[in-house]
Amino acid sequence: MTTVIDVDARGMRHCETTALGVLLRHQGLDLSEPMLFGLGSGLSFIYWDSKSMDFPFLGGRVKPFELTRNLATALRLELLVQETTSPHKAWENVRASLDAGRPVGLQLDSYHLDYFSSKVHFGGHVVAMYGYDDHDAYLVDTDRQGGAVSTGLAGLARARAARGPMAARHRSFTLTVPRDVPSLGDRIVPAITACADAFLNPPIANLGHRGVDKAGKLVRTWLQRTDAPERDLPQAALLMEKAGTGGALFRNLYRDFLDECTRLLDSRHLRTGHGLYAEAAPLWTEAAELIAKAGESGDERCLAQAGALLRDLSRMEREAMQALSRLGS
User: Fold this and answer.
1) Where is each DUF4872 domain found (predicted)?
2) What pTM was computed for the model?
């Protein structure tokens, strides 16, 4: 059995920040999960629907692995990413890192992991790996999935080889912390303003504040969008609250990040943004509850209320991001 020594196998709320936390703590850099998420400019929104999808999807963060790249840039971390179409080469990449005493991050399809509680294909899942033996891989996943867990090597190989939306080619990665880590106070403003600018100026109407407003209009039609509303609407609500989002479709994490930043930076624009996200986060949870209730009861009034909330949230988050975008002025 090979395991990396002194790994803090702490599961957190979101998969990518959990993996990042494991890799960075192993090198002595211990940041809170909201700080990892915020420095990675992780907050976003997408209303995703197509003819090939059974039901629409509401996403609340940037695409998989973009958060990791953003964080590496913000903190001047050395990010080594390896991808390959060869399963053998993919395993050798990971084993070399572990044998050298370094935990490694993996992007994979969670469906094939033995311990995963929800058997749904998701190719953008990220874990940290810290050991292996002849039969199993030892991973760190979110606290909801068990934190320090193990899965069979065969299933891990299938998870890494899976193809589909958001999947990568056997992606593995390591991070190296520089001797002089930039001051967090110097890095939070660029991270916040980059996130705000992307949210305020989306290239298409499905993204950012425009996407939230669009969701507010379309969610009202969701009972007619499916033949099984009692299944699909509660599932959509569950994904908003429980599927590694930290609750409120990642808004809880961003609210807590902004709160942490107010202790590092004295700015009325920052306090305004934090206050608005503190108001918005519970409204996202309320919207999810209304969507679930509509599916269970068939009551269209619940979706009308959820839609109205989402349109209010579009305005509220636009105002929050407008204030936060002024941090760079």
Assistant:
1) 155-324
2) 0.96
